[in-house]
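Pasting as-is:
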Amino acid sequence: MIRRRRQCLKCDRRFTTYEKIGESFKLNIVKRDNTRVPYDREKIIAGLQKACYKRPVSAEQIQAVADRVEEDIFKYSDKEVSSIFVGESVMRHLCGVDKVAYIRFASVYRKFNDAGELLDEVSQTIKDQNSTDQPELFN
């Protein structure tokens, strides 16, 4: 979904429009094994919902992250985009919403081989923590 701010020509008021990708629009995701699958927003939302399960993240926040990821995708490409780009975009936006959900998503997306890799990601997330409105991962 793409959000656009517009201004009415008659009354000069500002308003926001939301545009969904139509069925005729053909965007393909190039997966890691070089297969191509049609873009499906619901897959992004499903992944976000799993990562945010039992976390204080609202459905609106999940939709907002999906919207921002879509905006990134369409700024980057109009025909094909790599799944790596999509996953990194999801993680970048999710990190600002909830650090624990970010770690959950990253653990599946990055396919950590051992606990050390997971701990490295958690340590890096703690170091990069810019937001003061979120509780710390570990006290």
